[in-house]
Structures are given as structure tokens and as C-alpha cells.
């Protein structure tokens, strides 16, 4: 008489030991090879998305302006436009100066090109630091919960209740407007927002089977956070980074407009150049402020297009 083989198990009283034959892989677990394949497909889809292509192209242009301004600028950063040995000051857009000239005859177009360096160095640095520390805090809060979550959440709520620019001004007035202070200040103000977003993502992941399996294997909490959960929330971090860069650009430009810019007072700076030409708009000299403002708007819109495209592709 034939019998159907059953997976063997050993039972002693209330203790049951299940052999490896009955072990199952959690349905929510994605092997690293499959995860890499999915990411490759998502990247390919991303570069076929029109909004991403437009945003990436505009951002790439401004990055090139920041790295190699001499390729695009017609005049030097602080060079006055001269025609027939005569300085042309406060002149509107023309063939000699495409965006016109400012109060001392400097080419507004060239100033806009050179001014890209300030925001495209400070903003990504600030966003990167904010995402780094925010991700760590979010992992702690979302995984451990309990008193860790309660204490950090109350601190985050307190920071978020205060205006970002006001806090930044207080720090810059106290410690000075150096690049290090500016970057760390903006990063510190954005870290709570990132931490709250990451916390929500980690809380969702922590309920899935692969995390439960890791706990049953006796893996330490830090290992589970960094090796199990973190790879599954990288998409959230990428989106959060791009969004924070856009906000950081606005913050850097706003602080420069208010007089807290880094570098020399003669360096091209979008926010500071807007401030210097703002009072001349009523006199009809709109080009001094408008073109730097358009530059800021175009860069922020481009980065938002990238962020929206990434969010749509990764959530599909």
C-alpha cells in the first residue's frame, strides 16, 4: 500500500520543530536580483517620461552653467559692458547685452549664468545632509516606536511649528553667514520633514513578512533597519531629496535676497541681484531683477518635474 510522504516534524510536548521542508519565503520579500531588475526597468521608464526629460534638460543646463560658466557667459562675472570705450549702465535688453545691464554696467545675462553656482552648490548639499540625518531618525522612529518615537516626534513637531526662514535668520545672525553655517542651517531645518516622511514609510515596511522573518531569525535591530528596510525605502528618499533641493533653492535665494549670502559682495548671486534691482522696477528697469527671478523659477520647476516623474514611476 502506497502512502503520500508528508513533511516530517518532531514534537516534544508543546514544542514543535519544523523541518526546513516546511519553511516558506515571505510573499513580500523581493530577492536582491529581482530588486535590481525592477530598478533598471524603472530607470528606463523614467528616461522615457516627457516631464522628466524636460526637467532633467533644464537642470543639466544650469549645472553646466555652474560648472563651466565661461561656455555660456558673454562677459566676465564683474565685467562692465563697454561699447566704443563707453560703459553702458541701466540699459534694457539689446544685442550687446541680451538681458540688459545693471546699475554699474554689468551684463545681467552673464551675472545670471555665474549666479547658478551659489544655489547649485548650497542647495544640494543642504538637501543631501537633511536626507541623510532625516532617514536615520525616521528609521529609528518607525522601527522602534515607543518612547523613541514619542520623544523625537515631539521635538520634530516643535521645530516644524516655527517658520523656516525666521529660524535660519536667527542662526545666521548668531554664527555668521558662512557657507558651512548656511548649509548646516538649511539641512537642520529640513531634517525633521524628511524624518517624518521616512518614519511613515518605515512603519509600513515594518509590518511586512520579511521584517518579521528577520526578527524571528534573531537579527539585531540596526541590521534589520539598514539591510532589510532601508533598501526598500530608497525610492522614498530619492523623491524626498529632489523635493528638498527645490525648497533649498528657494531658501538659499530668499536668504540672499535678505542680505545673508555667502562669498564676496561682488559675486553673482540670484537672490542678491534681485534685491539690488528690486527698487528699480518702478523706474522701468525691470530686467535687473526679473531675469534672475526667472532663473530661480525655471530651476525649481525643473526639479519639481523630476520629483513628480520619479514619484509616478516608482509608485506605479
Helix and strand content put the structural class at mainly alpha
Instruction: Give the count of helical stretches.
Output: 11
Indicate the overall shape: elongated
Strand content: under 5%
Q: Write down the CATH topology.
A: MetI-like fold
Give the mean pLDDT. 85
State the low-pLDDT regions, or none: 1-29
Largest sheet: 2 strands, antiparallel
CATH class: Mainly Alpha
Using only C-alpha atoms, the radius of gyration works out to: 27 Å
For the largest beta sheet, what order do the strands appear in spatially?
1-2
Number of strands: 4
Count up the domains: 1
Distance between the termini: 54 Å
What is the share of helical residues? 55-70%
Full CATH superfamily name: MetI-like
CATH architecture: Orthogonal Bundle
Pick out its properties:
disordered N terminus, two-stranded antiparallel sheet, MetI-like fold, 316 residues, two-stranded antiparallel ribbon
Amino acid at each position: 500500500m502506497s502512502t503520500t510522504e508528508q513533511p516530517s516534524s518532531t514534537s516534544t510536548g508543546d514544542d514543535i520543530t519544523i523541518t526546513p521542508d516546511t519553511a516558506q519565503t515571505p510573499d513580500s520579500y523581493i530577492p536582491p536580483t529581482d530588486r535590481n531588475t525592477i530598478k533598471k526597468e524603472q530607470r528606463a521608464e523614467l528616461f522615457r517620461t516627457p516631464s522628466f526629460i524636460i526637467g532633467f534638460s533644464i537642470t543639466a543646463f544650469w549645472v553646466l552653467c555652474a560648472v563651466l560658466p565661461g561656455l555660456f557667459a558673454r562677459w566676465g562675472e564683474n565685467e562692465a559692458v563697454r561699447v566704443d570705450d563707453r560703459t553702458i549702465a541701466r540699459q534694457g535688453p539689446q544685442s550687446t547685452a541680451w538681458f540688459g545691464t545693471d546699475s554699474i554696467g554689468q551684463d545681467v545675462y552673464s551675472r545670471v549664468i555665474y549666479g547658478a553656482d551659489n544655489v547649485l552648490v548650497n542647495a544640494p548639499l543642504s538637501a543631501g545632509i537633511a536626507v541623510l540625518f532625516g532617514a536615520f531618525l525616521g528609521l529609528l522612529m518607525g522601527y522602534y516606536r515607543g518612547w523613541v518615537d514619542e520623544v523625537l516626534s515631539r521635538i520634530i513637531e516643535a521645530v516644524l511649528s516655527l517658520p523656516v526662514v525666521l529660524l535660519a535668520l536667527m542662526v545666521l545672525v548668531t554664527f555668521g553667514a558662512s557657507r558651512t553655517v548656511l548649509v548646516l542651517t538649511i539641512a537642520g531645518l529640513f531634517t525633521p520633514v524628511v524624518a517624518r516622511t521616512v518614519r511613515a514609510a518605515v512603519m509600513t515596511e515594518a509590518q511586512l513578512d520579511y521584517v518579521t522573518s528577520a526578527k524571528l531569525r534573531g537579527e539585531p535591530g540596526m541590521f534589520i533597519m539598514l539591510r532589510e528596510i532601508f533598501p526598500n525605502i530608497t525610492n522614498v528618499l530619492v523623491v524626498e531629496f529632489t523635493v528638498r533641493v527645490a525648497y533649498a533653492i528657494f531658501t538659499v535665494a530668499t536668504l540672499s535676497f535678505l542680505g545673508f549670502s555667502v562669498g564676496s559682495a561682488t559675486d553673482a548671486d540670484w537672490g542678491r541681484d534681485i534685491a539690488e534691482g528690486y527698487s528699480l522696477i518702478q523706474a522701468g528697469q525691470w530686467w535687473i531683477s526679473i531675469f534672475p527671478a526667472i532663473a530661480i523659477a525655471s530651476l525649481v520647476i525643473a526639479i519639481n518635474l523630476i520629483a513628480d516623474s520619479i514619484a509616478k514611476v516608482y509608485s506605479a
